[in-house]
Write a structure and sequence with these properties.
Elements (H helix, E strand, L loop, with lengths): L1 H4 L7 H26 L7 H5 L1 H6 L6 H29 L14 H11 L12 H30 L5 H20 L6 H21 L5 H27 L5 H5 L3 H11 L4 E11 L3 H9 L10 H5 L4 E7 L6 E6 L2 E11 L3 E8 L22 E12 L5 E11 L4 H28 L5
Antiparallel strand pairs: 1-7, 2-3, 3-4, 4-5, 5-6, 6-7
């Protein structure tokens, strides 16, 4: 098994031409077996052959455990393919960097084809020069970083349902430290080159999460500043350990700490309450404003930043009945929230509590379905209250209060982002009520 995973040595064109297609098709075989076990008909069109894992993500009834298992096997296949591709490039004495892209769907077909037909460079005897060995170390470091990122998401998010310091800070730090150590352990790299390799590992890890339907584009973008910062610090530590020639097992064994940290966070989930209050003055009486906030008219204003980011934003609402106990349906961009009226004073107060709510966001992804637990249950809306206060000029001050619980860490990073989204959503609702109440409909 070690010979399959190593980047040292050479692979002849014949062996590579026989092994690489088998590795590529094994991904399709895994997906086909999953469909067969589930008793679901598999559509073997062009997308199935180009992006087999995309078809897996579309399979009805797919569980997180099944997705994690297939991914783990898929990553081992990708590593072996990258290692064989690098050793095939060694035989030709050229284009070693192509082997890194052998792990990416669609691209890997092109890379394998090019490597299969690549001739030996004139004057080369197929040996490994020093710079090629260095590149092999770089590839191993980057791939190790990618593997840590994806495995951490599988364990922390998909298995334990934990989003916290371990996933967003400790994991990037360990990725940076591991990558920084591996790329420097034999031939020292400059600090700038080390950081480039660390950032490449982080970027490729994010791409792997996206391609395997484990995370969406916007979540990766939101966490990137925090994750890349932690990875850069870890990379500096890893490089320092390699340069000082200390025991190399230390940065590598640090990976084993992550599952314990994930389990600890799962036993103590965060729950940070966030109260958002916004007000607006409306040139209409409280009775007219009451009609506006209880009408079923859609919110015609642009959702703004929350809409661009894929975050849930309100579309319209409707009431089934009147008074305390009535049901209110809040239609959001991601689904419908079921709410129960808890206070009903026409022209003065309308309050309700959320019984069930749709996902907090709709991820941007090339896949139809994502296995991302954070879409539900990590941003929980509680009580919401409209207060109508009459003004001396005959108008009304409409105040909207919303209580939300944020179940994600580090709170110092996520709370400001959440507050901005809550503020924009509430302002949009209030501005819509103002336009509705001051419009010709209620004159």
């Amino acid at each position: 098994m070690h010979k399959l995973l190593t980047f040292q040595g050479r692979v002849s064109p014949l062996v590579y031409a026989l092994a690489a297609p088998v590795l590529l098709l094994s991904q399709n075989l895994m997906v086909a077996l999953c469909y067969r076990w589930q008793g679901v008909a598999l559509k073997t069109d062009g997308w199935f052959w180009l992006l087999p894992l995309r078809r897996l993500a579309e399979m009805p009834g797919l569980t997180a455990t099944q997705a994690a298992t297939v991914f783990a096997l898929g990553f081992v296949i990708a590593w072996v393919l990258a290692a064989l591709s690098f050793r095939r490039a060694n035989w030709s004495g050229r284009d070693h960097r192509l082997s890194l892209f052998a792990i990416f769907p669609v691209l890997q077909i092109v890379i394998v084809t090019l490597l299969c037909i690549m001739p030996r460079r004139c004057g080369e005897q197929g040996g490994q020069r020093g710079d090629e060995v260095d590149l092999g170390e770089v590839l191993q470091g980057v791939l190790a970083g990618v593997a840590i990122i994806v495995v951490a998401v599988l364990i922390s998010a998909l298995t334990l349902g934990t989003y916290g310091w371990g996933l967003f800070v400790a994991t990037p730090f360990v990725v940076g430290m591991t990558t920084g150590y591996i790329v420097n352990r034999r031939v020292p790299q400059t600090g700038r080159r080390t950081m480039a390799h660390v950032l490449a590992a982080g970027a490729l890890g994010g791409l792997a999460l996206l391609m395997f339907a484990l995370e969406g584009f916007m979540c990766i973008v939101l966490v990137a500043p925090l994750g890349l910062g932690a990875a850069a610090i870890g990379g500096a530590f890893g490089r320092a350990i390699a340069m000082s020639r200390h025991d190399g097992s230390r940065p590598l064994m640090s990976v084993a700490i992550l599952p314990a940290l994930f389990a600890l966070e799962a036993s103590m989930p965060p729950a940070t309450p966030i109260d958002t209050v916004e007000s607006i003055d409306i040139a209409a009486s409280p009775d007219v404003v009451w009609q506006a906030i209880t009408s079923e008219a859609p919110i015609g204003l642009s959702p703004g930043l929350p809409g661009l980011a894929g975050l849930a934003y309100p579309v319209r609402s409707s009431l089934n009945g009147e008074g305390v106990g009535a049901t209110r349906l809040g239609v959001f961009s991601t689904g419908t929230a079921v709410e129960r009226v808890t206070e009903w004073k026409p022209g003065r107060v309308l309050a309700f509590t959320v019984l069930s709510q749709p996902p907090a966001m709709e991820e941007m992804s090339p896949y139809r379905h994502l296995h991302t637990p954070h879409l539900t249950g990590y941003v929980v809306t509680g009580d919401t209250r409209y207060l109508l206060s009459p003004l001396r000029n005959g108008g009304t001050r409409l105040t909207l209060q919303a209580q939300t619980v944020l179940r994600i860490d580090p709170i110092a990073y996520w709370e400001p982002i959440a507050r901005i989204a809550f503020h924009l959503n509430l302002r949009r609702v209030l501005n819509s009520a103002k336009i509705e109440a001051e419009g010709p409909r209620f004159e």
